[in-house]
Amino acid sequence: MIHWEGVMPAVTTKFTSEDELDLAMFETNIKAQLDAGVQGIILGGTLGEASTLTKQEKETLIKTSLTIVEGQVPVIINIAEQSTKEAIEVAQHAEKVGAKGLMVLPPMRYKATDHETVVYFKAIANNTSLPIMIYNNPVDYKIEVTLDMMEELSECSNIQAIKESTRDITNVIRLKNRFGDRFKVFTGVDTLGLESLVIGADGWVAGLVCAYPAETVAIYELVKAGKIEEALAIYKWFMPLLELDISPQLVQNIKLAEVATGIGTENVRAPRLPLQGKERERVLKVIEEAMKNRPELPDYKNLKSVV
User: Fold this and answer.
1) Which SMART domains did the record assign (predicted)?
2) I want to staple 80 with a disulfide (CB 3.0 to 4.6 A). Which of 15, 105, 110, 208 is the partner?
3) What is the domain count for the chain?
4) Which one is catalytic: 120, 135, 141, 300?
5) Catalytic site residue 212?
6) CATH number of the domain enclosing 249
7) CA–CA distance, 193 with 263 (Å, rounded to integer)
């Protein structure tokens, strides 16, 4: 059972300089997320450099996360595989290891038709008891999960949420108008976070939360408490950082920000490489400016929700 709400970080995978999993820094980051008040941990997404991880590394990350969170929040694993067979195997293994939920992308590499995509999602859902969030990101993955497709997917009771990353925040309203609370809706684009929450999104699968967990959760809690102006003040400060998430180098960008806040390292796994030259200077300047003006946060953990 997952309460699909709140901020759920798509966490980065921490590596040592020898390209091994850095579980000590990973624990530091996860504990910072928990301290800030996140409602779930999502492993192995784009930010988690999933395509470069071995099956054993993914299992290690799940088990390590479960040990750290001690049941406080659900640990969710991303499914982004080449074939239906692989996707089912990964989902079943994640359930066996102890993951509490799945975030599922459409088939990778092959641009499936609407029908093929629906059949793919249903096959995964029908072969696991884990609750599922569908990840809808046609901008990056070239397949849109339409409202009509979600209608078909509503037949699977364990498909319970959608990460809405079309860049059209009015889809939040369309989903709510059509399905009510049948599907919980999460915004998946950092630069549309506050707007999506204001118009009814249930939660935020966030990226810059990896470096700034308290600021991200504060925005969510303030919006839910009806304190929009206070949330907006933080969001305005946050925006230059949030724009680092909508870039092909989002992993390198966000890991640099994690270094600045002391809860990560810059190490990435090849073929990714650390930022260089003018782009590195630009990103560091954004981070440096933000750190100089980092806002003092209100007591966001003790607000009364009005939503």
Assistant:
1) DHDPS (SM01130)
2) 105
3) 1
4) 135
5) no
6) 3.20.20.70
7) 22
